[in-house]
Write a structure and sequence with these properties.
single chain, nine-stranded mixed sheet, seven-stranded mixed sheet, binds phosphoenolpyruvate, binds magnesium ion
Length: about 775
Amino acid sequence: MQSRVALVLVSHSRPLAEGLLRMLQQVAGDLPMAIAAGVGEGGQDLGTDATAILAALEHLDNPAGILLLVDLGSALLSAETALQLAESSLLGRVQICPAPFVEGAIAAAVAAAGGLELTAVCSAARTALDSKMQALRGDDTTAAGAATADHKTIRSTPEADEDWESLELQLQDPAGLHLRPAAALLRLAAEGESPTFLARNDLAERIPLDSLSGLLSLSLRQGDRLHLYTRGPHAQQRLAAMATLLTRETPSPLAPATSSPRTAVPGTAVAPVYALRQSPVTLPVSPAVDPEAELAALREAIRAVEKESADDEILAAQRLFLQDSALLGAAERGIRERGLSAAQAWLEAATEIEQRLAAIPDPTLRARRADLLDLRNRVLQGLGVSLPWQVPDLPSFILLADELPPSVARRLDPARVLGVLDRRGGQNSHAAILLRAAGIPYLVGIGAQPIADGTLLAMDAGQGRFWLHPSPEEVQQLQGRQATLAATPASFGLLSCQDGSTLEFWANISSRAEAEAAARLDVRGVGLLRSEFLFLDARAAPTEAAQEASFRNLFAPLQGRPIVVRLLDAGADKALPFLQLPKETNPALGLRGIRALERRPEFLHQHLRAILRAGAGHDLRLLLPMVTAPAEVTRFRAVLREIHQQLTAENLPHPWPVAVGIMVEVPAVALDIDAFIAVTDFFSLGTNDLGQYTAALDREQTDLPELEASSRAALLELCARTVQQGKRPVSVCGEAAADPAMAREFLRIGLRRLSLAPARLPALYVNLQAECGTGREAQARAKT
Ligand code: PEP
Ligand code: MG
């Protein structure tokens, strides 16, 4: 990325500087910035410290220069002292700015993000009080006039010169032009080689788009007609991107700006980014309608959507909404009692439920909102309302979504869509499952920052990062990483470590596509087959034959490799209606995993028979979820023996004996691990649940990263105890196995078997190979 001026905020108050920094991050994204604020332990007392300022300068050590913004009196003295202490190589690149602290910092951040050089950034900051002073004179027009006088008002018409491109539009945002879009507009303007000018309504004055205060001082309101002018290469595209920004009707209720990007499907991509859009739903108010005809039309449209979803595992999940009486009842009442058309009634009913879902704090439930919106629109389309999703028709691009609907995810062509950025989205959403299968890199939770259509973007989803306007060096670096991943070999099963040990990689799978990917990567085996994913959409208990067919289908590509099948782990977030488990106030601590299976013996019998029969000819192993006590395993072994005797009596082939392992995901098990040695053949560390039960922190909770980080040592301690029993093999199958930092911790405590999603394996392998590998695999591969 082209190097940009960095900022250091020097304040007497640490909370003040931290708050301001957060505001700046909203307008300037990843601009290099630091604070030097407060004195005493953790900066808790008021004051400034020259050595802290110097440390911030040295830490940033920014080639494009560093601007120091200071608050009151002695802050300036401390800043000057810091400069006296600094090395001469740093000195030439640092400037103290005589600007108002808050307004100046914001103007400086915008100017720096737009690529202006140090002196220009400082002068943008110095004039930052203008807009407030002008506004307090109480007259918008004067204010604009005054601002434009300061900022090179152009009174000649640029369009008189035929070089200029112009565009007229109406500002849509009900809040007028506020801080974030204004900052985004200036960033777009700064991309051009020639200046961009803006004029309002009467065209009397045009201001160059190079100053935040100048722009804000226009006090642009919803409905204002704006004229934009620019010229030079890509002038039209830049204007179009600005128009997109300014004509957005309402700011979308996006993820909080504090959210940080998370990997949903690893991979890298570099391409222009374009947003996924859908025509807004506006229905004409219909004159009198025939309620019976409208009801029939609604039912027909719903039936058609149900039929369309029947053969599709993912879309089938959405169908649950179509059986929701709250939704259907409200729509039908709208038609019967209020004379609405089918489309109006359906839109109202679905929107009301969608808004209720949006307000739910549980992220898993909230994620269903995307399914509902998608479904709502498909039924509307069935009723003749046209609102297709507009996937850009371009040869290669990165797609930006507010929350990628599964029905769009499934039709994205990996040859054209090089990656997807999602402002919200979830790592375990249906869209993520589909993109994983299609091999499209997917980054979720990127938040609300403005990204204009056509902006060049680089993403490294595996590392949870993306860059707007990447520099040629950054693109090259990313392509290098991609090439390393692509050049890495077909086999990812083993890694010889420098200490002479061997690290084994196994796969976590839950679909046929993942089984195939696991085989392609040549993993040692399947360390976790999550059987519940086969049943998530089932309304009725699947028959033994149906289960057997599903398992056979998954096992087929894995011939010759050990397959660890985990018995159905129902309960908590994976509520399966057909098991009819009682409603619990705290389901994560209730009937989950083996506890639920023991209460449904008939299902357990069928389930086990199906797995064993499908496992004939395979190296099958069984894994029990949510075990808490050795007695649960002993009872299970008795059931397993009974099923073996039945199948033998019926002459039905199945593997025997079968190893039985347990998930270590309840802290009580790890703490008393020796008590389980006699009843189990292997242990599998389920760090997702073990972590949540150790820290009393919901695994779906993303707002408390600090607690998650600080409880990591306790989690590792429980893992270490499990390894130290020393008598039974141990693997890790929680998501932490795919995190390079955690994987290194696992190696440190003696674990040598990691099981993870195939999509995440190559990146982890390459990462660990660089640090712990001996290079023997590469040599062996070179010979073959
Ligand atoms: C775990 O808890 O770490 C685990 C692998 O199981 P799941 O994520 O399916 O609960
Ligand atoms: Mg678990």
